[in-house]
Amino acid sequence: MLWVEGVHHRYGAVPALDDVTFTLPAGHTLALFGPNGAGKTTLLKVLAGLIRPRSGRAGVEGGRGAIGWIGHQSLLYGQLTVRENLRFWGSLYGVRAPVLDARISGLGARLDLREHLDRRVGTLSRGQTQRAAIARALMHDPRVLLLDEPFTGLDRVAASELAELVREFAGRGDGGGRATLLVTHNVEEGTELATDIGILKAGRLVELAARNARSPEQVGARYRELVT
Amino acid sequence: MGALLRDALVIARKDLALEVRTKTGLVSALVFTALVLTVFNFGRDPTAVAALDLAPSILWVTFTFAAVLSLNRAFQLELENQALEGLLVSPIDRRSLYLGKLFANLVFVGLVEAVGLPLFALFFNVPILHVLLPLAALIAVATVGFVAVGTLLSALVIRVRFAELMLPVLLLPFLIPPLVGAVQVTSRLLAGRPLSEVSGWLRLLLAYDIVFVSLAGLLFPATVDE
Questions:
Q1: CA–CA gap between residue B19 and residue B33 (Å, rounded)
Q2: Which of residues 160-189 of A touch B (CB under 8 A)?
Q3: Mean pLDDT in runs of 10 for chain B (226 residues)?
Q4: What is the residue extent of each domain of chain A?
Q5: Whether the Cβ atoms of residue A26 and residue A179 lie closer than 8 Å to each other
Q6: Is A77–B91 a contact, with Cβ atoms under 8 angstroms apart?
Q7: CATH 3.40.50.300 fits domain A2-62+143-227
């Protein structure tokens, strides 16, 4: 569902990704940890088609239209209402008008945004904005979710709500669910969600394994061992 | 082609909705237009230079700088909450992003020109009603050319510091051919001369539009990719 083959990338003389290779099948959630500058966001951008790597290839089954992207920022226009934003993004992904309204209602109900659909995004709280950003990413019913530090700035309640949504997303769909790639500093939150754990260090994928029964503390210890 | 235009219209509609909400770009361009025309009106000596000699240049200088104000904001608004990243991840053809911005910019600049033209006629006492149609057509043709180049360059400078300064620096040299042509044709129109006298300039304006709209559409994907 998602593949990365021998990807190298550098910014000028600074290496960002160094021979990264892995695949992520449907139904799996890979939490990718790494310190600042490890290449996590670059890897996501390569997968999303925002960056063309120097060598190697990466992609998502179904192309860019199959990707749901949740970045550092909401990607929403503050002067438009949540509904206007969702209509705009849904239209760009080819969701037709009658389906758009049904999706907005459904996501509004699921994400507890119904009362806020006609409010301007600029007037929402951080948690509400994050929920609107998730609704935006799910408007076109993506098959792959790419999340870049989604827990940043969220309180515990909002973070656990987000985790629940990601879990729900990963379990949905035909043929064993959908694939989710999550990059984060937050080992605890990431491990709770993941079926697989990856660790990036200076652009190299130094660990990739099934989570199995490992606790967040065990994963955290392994992370510290590898990156320090 | 259908999807390209459909997505472009979705983007243009969103930009126009944002402008209707904020009114920042349009209001500043309109105020600028009124201010420049007022200053030129009071700054000239009507006994030394006839209004008709000066008017075409003033009209196009005003429109050009008002357009630069509008063009500057075209991609600035995509920086809010990194919306540009979302647009680039979405499955739309990059060219539809360009076309959407071009359509929205043409509407903004067209509105500014629609308000600026009567003000110009009023301040400079230039009769335009008898040449209104050809003058409007000329303004439309010249505007398409410089907005096409301006939209491309506004995307190019979006990630650099002092983008608002860089845009006019890069854009103005490209505007010399259509501006000279537009001034020439406007002066002939206002003087009641036949358009056959400036058919070469008209052809240049049309060729400029075709070349730069096509070229900008082709180059645009390279300007927004990292």
A1: 18
A2: none
A3: 90 94 87 91 78 87 89 86 91 94 94 93 88 93 94 88 83 92 93 86 94 92 82
A4: 2-62+143-227, 76-141
A5: yes
A6: no
A7: yes
